[in-house]
Design goal:
Layout: E1 4-7, H1 13-24, E2 28-33, E3 48-52, H2 58-68, E4 73-76, H3 91-119, E5 122-127, H4 140-161, E6 165-172, H5 197-208, H6 216-228, E7 235-238, H7 240-248
Parallel strand pairs: 1-2, 1-4, 2-3, 4-5, 5-6, 6-7
Helix pairs in contact: 1-6, 2-3, 3-4
Length: about 250
């Protein structure tokens, strides 16, 4: 029987790659995004459905889950970035990070758990970040939004296991074109005042030329491994830099 996966945040980056990976492996894929008109997927899309979804709006979540129907897997990938000196980061930006990266994930879990519990079957994968594996400067609020999901998922995994539902974490490493670039709510330059220049410049230069990076396919592979794990493993670092950080920790 062909299984069905719903993935949030699939307009680009990790989400798009995850959707294409599962399509290529014969799954029914429900790709969600705030603007479905932006959908552009490679390969055979005969088993693809694109549904509008804003994870910060309860009514949007309810409509998307109802439209999706029975789900075998939920992948919470939708996220926004925010990098800069915490001192000058507007509280509106911090709230936006928490609203999408933390509360949005929790809301999606709460929306799909009832159907999975009724069937006593399902997997939930929450995509966080390697900032949860090692402290990263200039990412305090972003890290907080992702660390919250690490603790949340660990606890959730215990209570859902009673109903034969798995909860997993995928922890991507640094991908220059995704989390800290295109997905940043406010350009990093606006959040680095002159007082922080001597501290921040070497860090930003290191970001520009990282020794190891994560690719979109690394994340798709990690999600696939998490979903098919039968050993009770919780965390799946994705990408060589994330794997190195996890090993060091």
């Amino acid at each position: 029987m062909t299984k069905t996966i719903l993935i949030t945040g699939t307009s680009s980056g990790y989400g798009k790659a995850i959707a294409e990976h599962f399509l290529a492996n014969g799954w029914n894929v429900i790709a969600t995004m705030r603007r479905p008109e932006m959908a552009c997927f490679d390969g055979d899309t005969s088993r693809l459905r694109v549904i509008p979804l804003d994870v910060t709006r309860e009514e949007s979540i309810a409509q998307a889950v109802e439209a999706a129907g029975p789900l075998d897997v939920l992948v919470n990938n939708a996220g926004v970035g925010g990098v800069g000196a915490f001192e000058v980061m507007p509280m509106s930006l911090i709230r936006a990070l928490i609203e999408t990266n933390t509360i949005g994930v929790m809301a999606m879990c709460q929306a799909v758990i009832p159907q999975m519990r009724a069937r006593r079957s399902g997997v939930i994968v929450n995509v966080t970040s390697s900032v949860t594996l090692a402290a990263l400067p200039l990412a305090a609020a972003y890290t907080a939004s992702k660390q919250a999901i690490e603790g949340f998922t660990g606890s959730l995994a215990h209570e859902l296991a009673y109903f034969d539902i798995a909860a997993k974490l995928v922890e991507p490493g640094y991908a220059p074109t995704t989390r800290f670039g295109a997905n940043a709510i406010v350009p990093v330059e606006r959040l680095l005042p002159g007082e922080y220049a001597d501290f921040a410049n070497p860090i930003m230069e290191a970001f520009a030329k990282p020794a190891l990076t994560t690719t979109e396919s690394d994340v798709a592979d990690a999600v696939w491994a998490a979903i098919h794990d039968r050993g009770g493993r919780l965390r799946f670092p994705a990408g060589p830099d994330a794997i190195a950080l996890a090993s060091a920790r």
